[in-house]
Design brief:
It is a single chain. With 173 residues, the chain is α+β, with helices and mostly antiparallel strands. It has one domain: Peptide Deformylase, CATH 3.90.45.10. Helices cover 28% and strands 29% of the residues. The strands form two sheets. Strands 1-2-3-6-7 form a five-stranded antiparallel sheet, sandwiched between helices. A three-stranded antiparallel sheet has the order 4-5-8. β6 and β7 form a beta hairpin. The radius of gyration is 17 Å and the shape is globular. The structure holds nickel (II) ion. Nickel (II) ion (NI) binds next to α2.
């Protein structure tokens, strides 16, 4: 199959609760392979099955700079969370925009891998944020519900960051 179409905010499928996976099938294996390909193609750090129109509890995440450490989580659950981090967040279903969201700094989650074996994963910072963000998709929730203030376009953010860098440079000069 290959690349799948990413559903965007406003698509009813993004507001629905996804169903647990009971057994691995060739179709689901293909879905997972396509989700990884679609995530990398869009330069995202995570993708949940509902974002490609499939109401299954499956997410893929990769926060590595090299995009070579994909994590597949089936029927995932957060079992522990602590701390707090506030930072910019975006979503492939809300292209070209970002908003400030507060998430736990550290999470522990349980899930099944592609072989349907249980594993535990511990995430901090960006990985913790990505796990929370992707798991929310499985319950029909989007980060825009949690945004503090408003959404910014990437152009606005680029300008803001450029200004901050300029000011810092002036302070140091
Ligand atoms: Ni998202």
């Amino acid at each position: 199959m290959g690349l799948r179409m990413i559903r965007e905010l406003g698509d009813p499928v993004l507001g629905k609760k996804a169903k647990a996976v009971k057994e691995m099938t060739p179709k689901l294996k293909q879905l997972i392979a396509d989700m990884k390909e679609t995530m990398y193609d869009s330069d995202g750090v995570g993708l949940a099955a509902p974002q490609v129109g499939m109401l299954k509890r499956i997410v893929v995440i990769d926060v590595s700079a090299e995009q070579d450490q994909p994590i597949v989580m089936i029927n995932p659950e957060i079992v522990e969370q602590d701390g707090e981090q506030t930072g910019w967040e975006g979503c492939l279903s809300v292209p070209g925009k970002s908003g400030k969201v507060t998430r736990p700094r550290h999470v522990v989650a349980k899930a099944l891998n592609e072989e349907m074996e249980e594993f535990t994963i511990e995430g901090e910072d960006l990985l913790a944020r990505a796990i929370c963000h992707e798991l929310d998709h499985l319950d029909g929730h989007m980060y825009v519900e949690l945004v503090e203030g408003r959404l910014y376009t990437n152009e606005e953010l680029d300008e803001m960051f450029a200004k901050e860098t300029e000011e810092e440079a002036e302070e140091q000069a």
